[in-house]
Every structure is written in structure tokens, then in C-alpha cells.
Write a structure and sequence with these properties.
The complex is a heterodimer. By secondary structure, chain A is mainly α. Chain A has 14 helices and no strands. Chain B contains 15 helices and no strands. The chains are: A mainly alpha, B mainly alpha.
Chain lengths: ~280, ~300
């Protein structure tokens, strides 16, 4: 093939393709659209008060108590969301695959619903329904965890579904039960390890989304990291640029983790599509 | 869950292979199995379905609970109509721009063999950029194309192009389109790459053996096979742009009337007249996204015909 394409005009022997240089050019062009805003943000965040370059914006921002409070809140929410959504979704996905295949369209449809009831509308609905609810729930960030779990449905279910498809869970379950392991034991000791990379990928995506979440927390009046960045932006541009970069790096770490977790399966990309 | 497990330990294999109808005491098994789905169903009912329905119901009621169609009818007038037009324009434009740029980028990424790291790098970066939306993205573009942004200054000082005088502003539908494209392109790459991957080299070879040129291959084989995936992905892009809230709020602070930001200002009490309009706009958004998703699902099914 390679030898042929060297001797003859491409279109007679090779599969039809655009020339390499054109492709490289296109990717470079697209890449510049993505890199320039990041560079501009980085340069902007490094501007010192007297026109020189300095890390002042970073050190100043990072040492503020308000930053730390909002950042820790978002971290806590991310952790709680990951735990709740995994406890809820892993048994559900397993059950649907093993015992209740008829329910699959239903579960798929429900896990797709957050695309229809978007975050803004969900915030309105939650406000409608829980306005008069108990204050330990409505008055505390717990309500955010409850809603974030819903936001994780589409991609977490898809990740688990793909993970379950790639192993023969029926055989594994039968083998485990014929050795006398109980139902929950099978789930914990046989199925979970096989789903580890899917769960890890789903968790990292949840982490990235919760750390950047703004819509629901701002509308329900909670001071998360996303809301704090917006607040800083109203009066201090360099600080906001520094925080935006930090947020970008966090997302990068999460996605890099997903890519590593799924390296062997080569299926990383379908786990990187979150909700917004 | 455990009852269903324990009651029929030895028919499990049989029923598992041949479906639930094959089991002996099928009726009770079939119904007990639904218990395992109860936590998920209960959770999504309480935190997803009921809130969604409450918005739809409230849209047809006054604050004192009387039935009315006033608010829903008002959606076709004045600023509410304008909000819908702006939001739909923004979503359609960025679904097309992001869709086309992303499709070509995915195609280049997949068909370039060198460098070897290109593919995993582009994929990971797409994951980052697709999820790097909201407030940080808005600030990144303020630092780039805002009135004192790096690119704005560069264009003005070195090339004599004044973006402001040309009528460009980030706080406009055009400005927002430029920003939204930032998460639309990578989303497209992630969505269509599997489909492009699925184009088998045998098809290309067969077409070229039959004498088809590159253009003819794409016109008669490649694009028809990819069409459902491309259309489906673009419908999802439409939905993602239509629903986006954070980026728009941080960039425009309400200067551009969009459906999500208008809902936000009702909910946060910035608009006090007719608070029920927020509910009507919520219903508006549910309906438009429902239409988009109902177009996506059949396309998705059609697209998966060629996979594997």
C-alpha cells in the first residue's frame, strides 16, 4: 500500500483522503482557537499591579479565606455526589443488565432526562417542590448534592452500561453464586472490580462537573467555587483569571485521569461527555 | 432484592438465558425483580420528574393557584419571543459552527497516523474543553476578546482593526456564538469520533476498486453512513447551547435576552412582575429540549446500525 502510493497518483490506488498537509493545517488552526484564550488568561493573571509579571494574583487569591471556604465546599459536594451517585447507579445498572433487561429502555430514558430538564429548569423545579422542605435539607448544601446526583445520571449510566457490556456479568455472577457468595457479596467482590475503570472515569467526570458547577448553586444561593469565581470577576479581573486557570487545571487533571483509567480499553472519549 | 434472589436459585441459569418468560414461577419473579429498580426510580421521581412536572404545572397557574393560560400565551410576545429567538439562533449557529469544525477536526485526528500521541491528546483535550464551560470560560474570553483583551489590543495596535467599532461585543449573540463554539467543537469531536472510526477500510477499498474518487466515496458511501451520527451529534450540540446558562450570565449579565438567563433572573428575584413567567419559560425550555432529544434518539438508533 505504502509502496504503491509512492509510485502512483493517490486516487487510483489509495483510499480516498484529503492531503496530509491540509489536515495538519486545519488542526493547527483549530488548536490556536483553543490555545489563545488560555494563553491570554494566563498572561492576564500574571500581570502585577505595576505592569510587571508576578504571581501576586495567585498567591493573593489562594490565601483568601473566602476562596478556601468555597473551594472546600465544592470539594465536599463533589465527594458526596460521587458517593451517592455510585451507590445509587452501580446496583441499578447491574440489576438492569442481569435481571431486568426489559427495564433498560426505561432506565436509559430516565438517565437521559437531565438533558430535557436542564439545570436552570431543575433549579426552578427544586425551588418549587422543596421551598417549604426541612431546613437541614433545603437550607444546607445537601440539596445541591441531591441535584448534582441527577446531573450525573446521563454520563454515569452510560459509563456503567459500557463497562457492564464489556464483561460477561452473567457468567461471573453465576460462577460467584455457585461458589456460595451472596448477592451483595457478588456485587462487591466480583462485579465492582470489573467495573473499576468505568466507575473511576464516571467519578472523575462528576468531580470535574461539580467543581465547575455554577448554574444551580448560584440560583439556590450557595457559595460554591464556581459562584466564587464569578463574584471575584465582578471586582478583580486578575484574580478571576487566576481562578479560571486553576479551574482549567482541575478539569485537565480529571480528564487526564479518565484517559489513564481507560487507556487499555481505548474508549475514553465516550466517558468525557458531561452535562452542563 | 434478596427475596428475588433466594426464591429461585436453580432456575436462574435457565431463565437468564431464555428470558424471564422461560422461568417456572415467572409472574412473581418478573414483578419482584422491579423492586431492585425501586431506589433509582424513587430517587429520579423525587429529584427529577416531580420538579420537572411542577414547573410545567405552575406555568398554567397563577400564584394563588387559579388555572390560567396567560403566561404561556405571553411566551409568543415581546421580550419572551425575543429571548426564544436569540436562544434558538445562538443554539443553531453554534451547533452548525461547532458541528462542522468539530467534524473536520475529528476526521483529521483519526486519519493522521503521525504523531502517535495526537489522538489521545486531542481526545483528552476535547474532554477538558467540553467540560471547561461556564464562568471560567467566560473570563478566558474576556481576557482575549473583551474590550481590553489580548487579541483585541493586538488587532487594534498592530493591524488597526478596532473590534468595538466593527460592532463586535462579547455581550451579543455573535459574541456568545464565538464563546460557545469553544465547548461545542470538542463536544462534536467526542460525539462523532466513534462513528468516523467505524467507517471500515474495506468500504473505502471497495469503493476505490470500483473506481470511485474521493468525492464520490464520501457522497455515496461515507456521508450517508455518517449522516445519522452527524445529525444526532448536532442536535445534542443544539440542546447543550440552548440550555447553557453560566457562560451567558458571566459574559452578558443580562444584556442579551436568552431563555435560560431570563429564567434565572425570575428565580433570583431580579424580576418581580409576574414571577410565574419564570415557570412558563421553564416549560418553554422543557418543550424545546424535549423536541431536540426526541429527534436525537431515533438518529442515535439509526447510527448504531453500522457499529460493529
Amino acid at each position: 500500500m505504502v509502496a504503491l502510493s509512492k509510485d502512483r497518483p493517490r486516487h487510483t490506488s489509495q483510499a480516498p483522503q484529503a492531503p496530509q498537509t491540509l489536515k495538519v493545517l486545519w488542526l493547527v488552526l483549530v488548536a490556536s482557537y483553543f490555545v489563545i484564550p488560555l494563553l491570554a488568561t494566563a498572561v492576564f493573571s500574571l500581570q502585577g499591579p505595576h505592569g510587571q509579571y508576578s504571581l501576586a494574583a495567585f498567591t493573593e487569591e489562594l490565601s483568601k479565606a473566602a476562596f478556601l471556604r468555597s473551594f472546600l465546599l465544592s470539594l465536599r459536594l463533589a465527594g458526596e455526589t460521587i458517593v451517592v451517585s455510585i451507590v445509587l447507579m452501580v446496583p441499578t445498572a447491574y440489576w438492569v443488565h442481569l435481571r431486568l433487561r426489559r427495564a433498560r429502555p426505561l432506565v436509559e430514558m430516565i438517565s437521559f432526562l437531565p438533558f430535557v430538564v436542564s439545570p436552570v429548569v431543575l433549579a426552578v423545579g427544586v425551588e418549587n417542590v422543596f421551598r417549604k422542605g426541612p431546613s437541614w435539607f433545603v437550607g444546607s448544601p445537601n440539596v445541591l448534592v441531591a441535584v448534582y446526583v441527577v446531573l450525573s445520571f446521563p454520563f454515569l449510566y452510560r459509563a456503567l452500561d459500557a463497562g457492564l457490556r464489556s464483561v460477561d456479568i452473567r457468567t461471573l455472577t453465576e460462577a460467584s453464586q455457585s461458589l456460595g457468595v451472596s448477592g451483595p457479596g457478588t456485587l462487591g467482590r466480583v462485579i465492582l472490580p470489573n467495573l473499576a475503570s468505568a466507575i473511576l472515569a464516571g467519578s472523575l467526570l462528576t468531580f470535574a462537573i461539580v467543581m465547575g458547577e455554577f448554574t444551580i448553586s448560584s440560583l439556590l444561593l450557595f457559595n460554591t467555587f464556581g459562584v466564587y469565581i464569578d463574584y471575584v470577576g465582578t471586582n478583580q479581573a486578575t484574580g478571576a483569571a487566576a481562578l479560571s486557570l486553576i479551574s482549567f487545571v482541575l478539569t485537565w487533571i480529571a480528564m487526564g485521569g479518565i484517559a489513564l483509567a481507560l487507556q487499555r480499553r481505548g474508549a475514553g472519549r465516550q466517558f468525557m461527555i458531561g452535562g452542563r | 432484592m434478596t427475596t428475588a434472589n433466594a426464591s429461585t436459585p436453580d432456575t436462574k441459569t435457565l431463565s437468564g438465558r431464555s428470558g424471564p418468560r422461560g422461568s417456572l414461577n415467572g409472574w412473581s419473579r418478573r414483578h419482584l425483580a422491579w423492586l431492585g429498580l425501586l431506589p433509582f426510580l424513587a430517587y429520579s421521581t423525587v429529584f427529577l420528574v416531580v420538579p420537572g412536572i411542577s414547573v410545567a404545572v405552575s406555568a398554567f397557574h397563577t400564584q394563588s393557584g387559579r388555572f390560567t393560560t396567560t403566561y404561556v400565551v405571553a411566551l409568543w410576545h415581546g421580550q419572551f419571543l425575543a429571548a426564544n429567538e436569540n436562544s434558538i439562533e445562538l443554539a443553531v449557529v453554534t451547533a452548525l459552527s461547532g458541528g462542522i469544525v468539530g467534524l473536520l477536526a475529528a476526521y483529521c485526528m483519526i486519519t493522521l497516523d503521525r504523531p502517535r500521541w495526537l489522538r489521545s491528546f486531542v481526545t483528552t483535550f476535547s474532554g477538558v474543553a467540553a467540560n471547561f464551560a461556564g464562568v471560567p470560560l467566560a473570563f478566558a474570553f474576556v481576557a482575549t476578546l473583551g474590550t481590553t483583551g489580548a487579541v483585541t489590543k493586538l488587532l487594534a495596535n498592530d493591524l488597526g482593526i478596532n473590534l468595538d467599532k466593527l460592532g463586535f461585543s462579547l455581550a451579543s449573540v455573535t459574541g456568545l456564538s464565538v464563546v460557545y463554539t469553544y465547548f461545542q467543537v470538542p463536544l462534536m469531536v467526542l460525539l462523532v469520533a466513534p462513528a468516523i472510526d467505524g467507517l471500515r477500510s474495506e468500504w473505502r477499498e471497495a469503493a476505490s476498486n470500483l473506481g470511485a474518487s474521493g468525492m464520490r466515496f464520501w457522497r455515496h458511501v461515507g456521508l450517508p453512513i455518517l449522516a445519522p451520527s452527524i445529525l444526532g451529534a448536532m442536535v445534542l450540540l443544539f440542546a447543550s447551547a440552548f440550555a447553557a446558562y453560566a457562560t451567558a450570565v458571566a459574559l452578558t449579565s443580562g444584556l442579551v435576552t436568552l431563555v435560560p438567563t431570563l429564567i434565572g433572573s425570575y428565580l433570583s428575584g431580579n424580576v418581580i412582575v409576574d414571577p410565574q413567567m419564570g415557570q412558563a419559560l421553564g416549560l418553554d425550555m422543557i418543550v424545546i429540549l424535549l423536541i431536540a432529544v426526541s429527534a436525537y434518539l431515533p438518529l442515535q438508533r439509526r447510527a448504531s446500525r453500522w457499529s460493529r
